[in-house]
Amino acid sequence: MAEIGRLNSLEILHHTPQGFYLDGAEHGEILLPSRYVTDSMKEGNMITVFIYRDSEDRLIASTDRPKAIVGEFAGLKVTSVHPNVGAFLDWGLPKDLLLPYREQTKPVRKDQIIVVRIILDPTSERLVASARLNRWLEKQAPRYRRGQSVRLLISERTPMGLNALINESHVGLLYRDPSIAHLDPGDQLKGYIQQIRDDGKIDLTLNPDRGARVVSLSS
């Protein structure tokens, strides 16, 4: 079954001047545009593609992988803001990803990096972004242990420091300190659980001896 917003292994059915058509099962034939076609692709081959809707609302296949797929979090750059619909984000595909106003928690601006989750609108079957991160995080109390190594995605600046998603399941705080001055929303790095407070909130720390590598999306 072909799933919108995910990577799929689909069979090549036939070739046209526009590209290859793939077997999308209940979605019918799905076009892989000619810009993605390579000499090694033949009818009957199985290829891995990402499926999404183009600007004309047609299902399109791409051999390019976006910066995030359905169910994943990522820091994406705002390419434009439109007063009637919301902001558009660069997620690595020709058609920018919409961040609707209803999925924003605060106004965004062009060139800003904003951390979002990729979701599939069940009614329109269109992929959109959501900045309402708490909706997708675990509601149960965290079970981390002090000193545990975790994956962090910096989500926003606060007066106290930086909020970060922990293993894409909880949110924690890196307190303001010179050692985190170089970090920005969208950066990914290794961190450590400093403590879980009585109110369930999580304090985070970086291990200064190991010099955690940072993947920056703001450059």
What is the secondary structure topology, with strand pairs?
Blueprint: E1 7-16, E2 19-23, E3 29-33, E4 46-53, E5 59-62, E6 73-82, E7 86-90, E8 97-100, E9 113-120, E10 127-130, E11 149-158, E12 161-166, E13 170-175, E14 188-196, E15 202-205
Characterize the structure shown.
The chain has three domains: 7-62, Nucleic acid-binding proteins (OB fold (Dihydrolipoamide Acetyltransferase, E2P)); 73-134, OB fold (Dihydrolipoamide Acetyltransferase, E2P); 149-205, OB fold (Dihydrolipoamide Acetyltransferase, E2P), CATH 2.40.50.140. Residues 208-216 have low confidence and may be disordered. It is built from no helices and 15 strands. The two termini are 38 Å apart. The strands form three sheets. The chain has a five-stranded antiparallel beta sheet with strand order 3-2-1-4-5, with no helix packed on it. The protein has a five-stranded antiparallel beta sheet with strand order 8-7-6-9-10, with no helix packed on it. A hairpin with a 2-residue loop joins strand 1 (7-16) and strand 2 (19-23). It has strands spanning 7-16, 19-23, 29-33, 46-53, 59-62, 73-82, 86-90, 97-100, 113-120, 127-130, 149-158, 161-166, 170-175, 188-196, 202-205. It is an all-beta fold.
